[in-house]
Amino acid sequence: MALAKITQVIGRAVVIPGDDIDTDRIIPARFLKCITFDGLGEFAFYDERKNVDGTDKPHPLNEPEHAGASIMIGGFNFGCGSSREHAPQSLHRAGFKAVIAGSFAEIFFGNSTTIGLPCVCAGKEDLEEITNWAQDNPDKEVSVDLQNMTVSCGGKVYKVSMPESAREGLLTGRWDAIADLLEGAAAVESTVGRLPYVR
Amino acid sequence: MAKTLFEKVWDAHAVRQLPNGQTQLLIGTHLIHEVTSPQAFGMLRDLGLKVRYPNRTFATVDHIVPTLSQVEPFSDPMAQSMISELRKNCAEHGIRFFDIASGGQGIVHMVGPEQGITQPGTTIACGDSHTATHGAFGAIAFGIGTSQVRDVLATQTLAMSKLKVRRINVDGHLRPGVYAKDVILHIIRLLGVNGGLGYAYEYGGSVFDRFSCEERMTVCNMSIEGGARCGYVNPDETTFTYLKNRPFAPKGADWDAAVMRWRDFASDPGCAYDDVVNIKAEDIRPTVTWGITPGQAIFIDEKMPVLSSLTGGDRGTAEEAYKYMKLQEGAPIKGMKIDVAFIGSCTNARLGDLQEVARYVKGRKIKPGIRAMVVPGSQIVAAQCEKQGLDKIFLEAGFEWRSAGCSMCLAMNPDRLQGGELCASSSNRNFKGRQGSPTGRTVLMSPVMVAAAAMTGEISDAREVFGIN
Lengths: 199, 469
Prior knowledge:
The complex is a heterodimer of chains A (199) and B (469). Chain A has 199 residues and is an alpha/beta fold. Chain A has a single domain (8-194), classed as Aconitase, domain 4, CATH 3.20.19.10. In chain A, 31% of the residues lie in helices and 17% in strands. Chain A contains eight helices and seven strands. Chain A has helices at 23-26, 46-49, 86-93, 106-114, 124-136, 164-171, 178-183, 185-194, and strands spanning 8-15, 71-73, 98-101, 119-122, 141-145, 150-153, 156-161. Chain A has a seven-stranded mixed β-barrel. In chain A, strand 6 (150-153) and strand 7 (156-161) form a beta hairpin. Chain A is globular, with a radius of gyration of 18 Å. Chain B folds into two domains: 5-265, Aconitase, domain 3; 288-465, Aconitase, domain 3 (2-Layer Sandwich). Helix content of chain B is 33%, strand content 17%. Chain B is globular. Chain B is an alpha/beta fold. Chain B has 16 helices and 19 strands. Chain B has helices at 5-13, 38-47, 77-93, 108-115, 146-155, 180-191, 206-210, 213-221, 237-243, 253-265, 312-325, 351-361, 379-387, 390-397, 447-456, 462-465, and strands spanning 14-17, 23-26, 29-32, 57-60, 96-98, 123-126, 140-143, 157-160, 164-171, 199-204, 230-233, 275-280, 287-289, 297-299, 340-343, 371-374, 400-401, 422-425, 441-444. The interface between A and B is large, with 64 and 84 residues.
């Protein structure tokens, strides 16, 4: 399965302020009633963006200046809670190609990189600078460079991090593990043979 | 060399190293449900792949099942199509399905242990973040996303990076009215909602030694709420007694051999941990959340924090929490009026939970105007309760007695909060909108504390309401 190599994402950024943005907030459970991921993009952050009557609330994702943004900037512990892959799927399908945050919950991180949505961590002070700059400059682009592990914006370059295995997968176009896992079939067979409860 | 259970299980299931440096890890047991599996089966079809070891995947239906009546067709056509899809996928691929008519349906994290599918020294994965529940039996159990459900179906393996291990000791004696739920809420409060990032939590100490498997499940269940992808307790006689004679447990000579193997998986004396945390059981009091993360918790007799005492992100999250919860910084939470009392979920809907609640609500009545419900986690628990007459005790007290499912824990079914209702809940998440209303409010606590709130109509100290001392 040939996948695109993901080395750099350049685009306008939108800031989702606050720490501990959970996956229920990214996509409320009622939108999980589906048997495909198609169409989930429009439900990203739905209850944060919409009043109960369907009218818009003040929210960064509702502001016209952020239309077409492709980089999301969050706080710490982004994507905590439920393991629902629907969360990164909804962001990806809403046009986001990378997420920058202070830290990510583990399951969300894995779900994201597996669908080719890189998530990079910036240090606390750098994240504050990036966030402030992005909020002041909604019309300008941010660059996430996975080769050099940097985020560039406003003429400054910030070091960011990501577990090496995920970075390697994105850079080499092997971010979806299925092909590699299938190649190990014979070795799997022998491991199965050693485990009484499986064989 | 002395090793932890985590390392032993990891080593026994490591297939090979992958090109990106991760480990291809065998997942011996795979559990699926209707919400996170249909897309995975769709991906298999698109890739032209089959389920590689269909006898190692087990299915049930829990999130979308209505609990008022499980009779089909469900009133929600999407819910009906999700159960139908799961039925079709299981039939097509030869997967054992604990369907509604089987008598074994329930929340997936209850079905595994009840059937004896969950066993020590095994790896378990499920497309649900509360999969760590199975760690109560000394299994290493991971919550996974849908693409990973596909990976397990197609290869019985996952690409994983090894976790560090943090040992959490709780020693001493819990005071009366303090439960396993209070222990885990306290741990999350101490270590933070992302304190477990990169760790597996190994729970131990004399409190865990005495805990039943059900109590261990309550604690392991909420590991993810502390940021730890898995949590476990070393297997012991309590574990083996629980599993003996369960339908999928080994029988006869196989049982004896299995117990010997299981014992060996327990962490060795003197093994090295990446971190150790010690907690005194006597320091823990009944705990309730006040905010929008499970870490925003206080003892029932404490006051909510004043914002000026908090710094950085904690302060920001607290400001947001007070605004959303409509609560006042520095005020007590005790006495807050509730609208709904929910006893259920994979955290606290097992027989022991419901027996404990029944013991206190027997002969009492809930406060008029409160909507109170008890939702057993599985059909087996429901049948046990009905056999013991617990359902009648709940009904006489004014609770609704429902059928098995996830119910109002996440409201993917008709059970949900309305508007800004405040719910005293035995579930695991108090996120904004979690219980089905975008403005609904959740206060997490033990089932007995929920029962106390149902009696008084406000957040209460169960020790006072029920005279527990």
